[in-house]
Amino acid sequence: MSLNHPNRFPDNILYRFPSSTLHNSKDGVFVLELLDHQFIYKYANPAGVDLLNLTENVEGKTIDDLFPPFEAAFLKKYYYMTASTNQITTFNSYKRSHQRIGTYETELTPIKHSDGFYILTIIRSHSTNFEQFTNPLILKNPTNLNEQKTSAEYQLDCDGYFLKANREVEDIIGYLPFELVGTNFSQLLPFNELFKVKQYFQQVLEGQSVQFKTELVHKNGQLVTFKLSLKPDIKNGKIKGVTGKVEKMLKREVVTS
Asked: Is 116 or 137 the better-scoring residue by pLDDT?
């Protein structure tokens, strides 16, 4: 039985957990059932339970039960993609563990069974340079205001979820980079700015670069005015996401919005 080809498992595999191959795997292994538009956990191996820092039985829980709203929305996007296309979906995610930022590859495999639709989830940890980009421990002295930066850079996917952010982002909006990864940019906007910013975001997905003024909600809850610069992230001739820069507004600075 190969973890590389989970869609080749016999139909009765779902009723024979814990199989030794999955149960003893060092990768996190989960089985979720799609029922009434909810993804419900049916199984998790010990490595998966440890990965999610679970202290109770996962069976019967939904994605919304186990993750905060922004992270649940990020995950469900890929689960729904797997269910709608009936194809294997792979994506990367990031998690803070033992004072480090780890990156994980998640593979979702659809399994059609006679009594329902299931998704086999395998989460593999692998080394990355991402920690060098987001390590929250490498911070400037926050009491030294002269060292604080006035701009920060980040990357979004085509749905507006943060993929990366550099460490200067804490000086700008108060969040450490790992806190933003998996969050949708709309969650940082006040309601009255949502429509305008989404229009600019759509323009970038159509190939334009834009610059505009908007308000963002700082981690301390205050509304702060910033200048945002967005441009398409183009790879192999296709737009794969959005690269952005957020800058503090100077008192005399005027930006056409």
From this structure: 116
- Specify the DSSP element, H or E, that contains 112: strand 100-113
pTM for the whole structure: 0.50
Strands 38-44 and 116-126: unpaired
Cβ–Cβ under 8 Å, residues 109 and 6: yes
User: Cα separation of 136 and 85, whole Å?
Assistant: 37
At 185, list the tokens.
């940019």
Provide the token pair at 25.
Answer: 């795997």
Please report the sign of the dihedral spanned by the C-alpha atoms of residue 226, residue 231, residue 235, residue 239.
Answer: positive
Q: What is the CA radius of gyration of the chain?
A: 21
Single out the residue of 102, 78, 80 nearest to residue 90, CA to CA.
78
CA-to-CA dists, residue 38 to 95, 191, 209, angstroms? 24, 27, 37
Amino acid at 159: D
Q: Which amino acid is at 133?
A: F
User: Going by DSSP bridges, is the β-strand pair 28-35/38-44 parallel, antiparallel, or unpaired?
Assistant: antiparallel
pLDDT digits (tens, 9 = 90+) for 199-218: 999 999 999 999 999 998 88
The Cα–Cα gap between 45 and 51 comes to 10
- Runs of H (alpha helix) within 110-183: 130-134, 169-173, 177-180
Listed residue (131, 218, 229, 225) closest to 175, CA to CA: 218
CA–CA dist 173, 175 (Å, integer): 6
Please state whether the peptide bond connecting residue 18 to the residue before it is cis, i.e. omega within 30 degrees of 0.
Answer: yes
